[in-house]
Amino acid sequence: MGLNKVMKQLCVTAALVVLSTVTAFAANVGQASGTNVNVRAGASTGANVLGKINKGTEYTVLDKVDNWFKISYNGATGYVFADYFSVTKADGSITGSGVNLREKATTASNSLKKFSSGEAVTVTGQNDDWYRVSYNGGSAYVSKDYVSGNLLQYVSKVSNETTAAPVSATTKAEDTYGVVTAGSGLKLRKEASTSAEVLTVLPSGTIVDVERAGQDWVSIVTDAGQKGYVSADYLTVKTGEKPDNTTSNTASAKGAAVVAYGKQFIGTPYVWGGTNLNTGVDCSGFVYAVYKNFGITLSRSSASMTSNGVEVSKANLQAGDLVFFNTGGNSSISHVGIYCGDGTYVHSTDGKGNGVTVTNLNSGYSANTYVTARRIF
């Protein structure tokens, strides 16, 4: 065989290897964790907004830059704030020989196969010391100690499926729903962990769809389409025809959507008289612009906003309520924010932290200057 022919065959072989590697490592994807999430031209809240993305549409993730994910967006490169974006699939590579792929996330589970060093895997979730990976059209688990990849740590956490069995098809056909029994409200969390982000607080009596019922956590969906996990101790799971939520509970879901939208603009600078959520807002301008997105036009100043909606006591606050403050030392309302639930509110301030931020309502300056609250929904 001539030298030229040998070289051609080597080149073809090398090309095939490269192509197979690209195919195996093409799974870094993610999606927005809410609606109308900004995609910016740079990793900064001051960068131009290229567009908005919504949960359910996946985008290729190129890298993680500080608190931003770098993604492919409409043929260009964009950046999404990490708090509002989840990595759903990431490339991984096995780092040892004879590594077990197990049916469940425990060393006591059946071994489905043994990996060779360097084998590629697609990671779809993480649970404590385990990665969930795609396998034969389903999922299986491999120890984190034997998988490497530069985006693996950002893959969404998943509940332990050894204790969280899927709802059966027979049961689902009847409707499987849950009723919140916690008197002070039940925290809906992003993941099945007490340290996970609180998405909202569901009032007692709220009725939700159950996706997966486990011993400690229940995966649920609210009427507003918000997904998350709640403690099984404070949710009664039932089967049958799902009742309708009351008006008050529906309003709570709307309030949670308002909060989620408003939090996207954390970091937007304070600008007196501003109403542009991307370039700058003052306190009432922030509240005005957020509610405007939901088709509701409020009064423009913090003082005049006290005539909108109905008054609600501090003890009965729920997500989306407007909270008012007297920061001038007189009897006038001079500041307003949106209550998030869990004792915090989101607002635009020209004080410490300058700009849109989240603050504890029940301590320090906020507690001392709080005056009243109004419910819009």
Could you give the topology of this structure?
Elements lengths: L2 H22 L4 E4 L4 E4 L8 E5 L5 E7 L2 E6 L2 E6 L3 E10 L4 E4 L8 E5 L4 E8 L2 E6 L2 E6 L3 E2 L15 E3 L2 H6 L1 E5 L5 E4 L8 E5 L4 E8 L2 E5 L5 E5 L3 E5 L7 H17 L11 E2 L3 E2 L1 H10 L17 E2 L10 E4 L9 E7 L2 E6 L5 E6 L3 H6 E6 L2
Describe what this molecule looks like in 3D.
Pfam families: NLPC_P60 (PF00877), SH3_3 (PF08239). InterPro entries: NLP_P60_dom, Papain-like_cys_pep_sf, Peptidase_C40, SH3-like_bac-type. Belongs to the peptidase C40 family. The protein has helices at residues 3-24, 169-174, 247-263, 283-292, 364-369; strands at 29-32, 37-40, 49-53, 59-65, 68-73, 76-81, 85-94, 99-102, 111-115, 120-127, 130-135, 138-143, 147-148, 164-166, 176-180, 186-189, 198-202, 207-214, 217-221, 227-231, 235-239, 275-276, 280-281, 310-311, 322-325, 335-341, 344-349, 355-360, 370-375. Strand 11 and strand 12 form a beta hairpin. Strands 1, 4, 5, 6, 7, 10, 11, 12 and 13 form a 9-stranded antiparallel sheet that branches. Strands 14, 15, 18, 19, 20 and 21 form a 6-stranded antiparallel sheet that branches. The protein has a 6-stranded antiparallel sheet with strand order 24-29-25-26-27-28. It is 16% helix and 39% strand. It is globular, with a radius of gyration of 25 Å. It folds into 4 domains: 3-83, SH3 type barrels (Roll), CATH 2.30.30.40; 88-154, SH3 Domains (SH3 type barrels, Roll), CATH 2.30.30.40; 164-245, SH3 Domains (SH3 type barrels, Roll); 257-375, endopeptidase fold (from Nostoc punctiforme) (Alpha-Beta Complex). The protein has 377 residues and is of the alpha+beta class. Mean pLDDT is 83; it is low at 10-26 and 162-173.
